# Entry
Amino acid sequence: MTIADKEAMLVDEFSNFDEWMDKYNYIIELGKTLPVIDEKYKTENNLIKGCQSRVWLNADFDGKIITFSGDSDAVITKGIANLLIRVLSGHTPDEILAADMSFIDNIGLKEHLSPTRSNGLLSMIKQIKLYALAFKTKASLTN
Amino acid sequence: MNTKLDLNAIRNDFPILSQKVHGKPLVYFDNAATTQKPQQVINALVDYYKGYNANVHRGVHHLSQVATEAYEDVRKKMASFLNAADSSELIFTRGTTESINMVAFSFGEAFVNEGDEIIVSTIEHHSNIVPWQMLCQRKKAILKVIPVFDNGVLDFEAYTKLITNRTKLVAVAHISNALGTINPIAEMIKVAHEKGVAILIDGAQGLPHGKVDVQALDCYFYCFSGHKMYGPLGIGGLYGRKSLLDQMPPYQGGGEMIKEVSFKGTTFNELPYKFEAGTPSIADAIGLGVAIDYLDNIGWDAIEAQEHALLQYATEQMIKEGGITIIGTAPHKASLISFLVDGIHPFDAGTILDQLGIAIRTGHHCAQPLMDRFGIPGTMRASFSFYNTTEEIDQLIAGIRRVKQMFL
# Structure
């Protein structure tokens, strides 16, 4: 499935929610149930410093695709982090760099990406893109 | 709850309070961050720009004279509000942060040398920590910290022992922005002065809640922000004892603060202008004056009674609701409650409360050392003004119940 396919699926999923409450309940559910990052990856290095909640992000590159895992001490942040990972994990650096992330807006979570929310999510997207760029550079050097 | 205040009339003075947020009536409980402004203050800003905007102190023309008079009247009003001996002891700044930085720089230049000591407390806002750290770095001085008990009260005995013959200044909050603790500043000032040490009071959270008499307190420096006491943003002040201010060099150079300028050297103006470089926030100062009139008109006894009643009601309701841990249980508290909903991250709870139209603050409240002391990442903080109601507190409690249903 391409990133665009996954984005379309999420937008479709979220279109079922009329009430903000349902949307948040779903995100909370995602935050509670989705797999957490392995404890060994919860390092200072992997910590993205947001003002309000802590977010960890780990990236593994097998030479072709990047696998992301993440966690947060706040459930809503973790739920949204998991949405990002669901969309972007398992893709090549080029695909990740090309993703425009407009689905965040389309599922009505744009407010969470405002820098003033300072919940670390914007930094998380930046970090994901940085990883993609770094791995792409690394791959081009080894090839 | 009995209150002498006509809350309906008061709330009508604050146009912002009648709006809806996410379709729900706004409940504004972030008053410790900034208070809302009454129409009277808003009108004062508009009137100034419409009617007499001009630069102060230097024009021979009519508008400049009107603006200067209005601006200087506020200085007199603030000085008298604080019961300063002389209005030249009242320096206008952008707010508490600038006032503290001013003292940290100018007092530091005049009096602090290598090996000297500055004392702050664990419960300080970053604004009353970082300027002193910077001073200590500049002068190779040492920063010492008054410890705090689990209930949010400063360890007074430890404080008295921290003062040595190398101590040059103590900087402490009147009221903690993160916990609401009202510090015993009269006693703290007395102890400092007995040992010949200057003390600065960060009054950002103090002045909005009651009158302060700097002469009765024998206070040397008292800093405040206009926007936390119903005035405009961008204006605040420093009360400083004249004998000290006279010995301190200027903080910033520029227009207004000089007597004569030549390339051979410059002589500085007298107090308070020595510390007011550049064109001041004239309109904002005038707005602050109107805010003071507004508060005086409501009456400080009524304000304190209403705020105390709200604090008591909210505390009772939170205890009754259960599953809530109040952080900071000092016997003397201002009208704010820092708390955690057990098992729920403050950011999560704050996000849902926001959806319910309830504005509270979540996070470390710019007091990270204090959060570290309590071993928590942050708290939720509801801070009340006299314009808040017990019904709004009921809505907060209902919101917290909703949060628990969603997360637990």
About this structure: Chain B has 14 helices and 17 strands. The first strand of chain B starts at residue 20 and ends at 21. Residues 42-296 of chain B form a domain with the Aspartate Aminotransferase; domain 2 fold (CATH 3.40.640.10).
